[in-house]
Design a protein that fits this description.
The protein is α/β, with parallel strands linked by helices. It has helices spanning about 25-35, 45-55, 60-75, 85-95, 135-145, 180-195, 210-215, 240-260, and strands at about 10-15, 40, 80-85, 110-120, 125-130, 155-165, 200, 220-225, 275.
Length: about 280
Amino acid sequence: MVDPDIDAPSVLIIGGFLTGPFNYWPLRRRLIERGAARVDIAPIWPMDWLAAGFVGLGPLLTRTGLAVRRTWRAGGRRPIIVIGHSAGGLLARLATSEVAFQGRRTAVAPSIGAIVTLGTPHRLGATTTAWPAHPGHRAAAFLERHVPGTAFAPQTGYLTIGSSFVAPTLDRGPAIPPLGQRAAGRVLREARTALLGAWDRPSPGDGIVPEPAVHLRGARQLSFDDVLHGHIGGPWYADDAIVDRWWPVALEVWRDAIRARAGAPPDTEGVGPFARNDPSG
């Protein structure tokens, strides 16, 4: 049996749209420095994401499920922490579903002690857009029907992390030259339009995903006002100072889930000043 007070978790990182494992090597190093027993990165590459635009997320779901099981086995068959960045958070939740998605079912919830999502657009169904629904919309709609909210709590914990920082007005955090601000702002705006279409109301966010879209009802929730979505511009969710804000909370969520599996009461001492426990999502 896992003793959550002494055992460090094994971690799997699932990257976001058009990223590759190399984008998350710094995050892997930072988590190991902060006590993770091992950190793996799901082998999903930019070309895989491009292919998903034509065939859907089914093949990526299979790859995600296999990655979860590999990390779980390598970590001594102890429940792991899965960290999903952006669309990677949707894949993490799809992998837990007991209902087949696009003919594929991995059902790995028993192997996952906590799902942590960084800027994941969980509420894509709340967008209004003239563009046809893309695979992310279809996945979010499926999740809302079959794996809503914190479906596997308390045996699996959930932590959703978002931002109310509005790009390209980068008036907080590290200084960025004007040309860099314009380039970052253009990339973020185009990516936001491609991923989300038009959100149904103006909302602050991380430059791509509006803050109201990132939180799941019933999850532990963290919202920051100085964090960007991805790897351009910064600071972003995986920078050193930002990881220090959410990693201790992720450990608490994971440990509470391990305690729930053992029939023990959750830790009620709190998780620090950055937490916002708002079940309204």
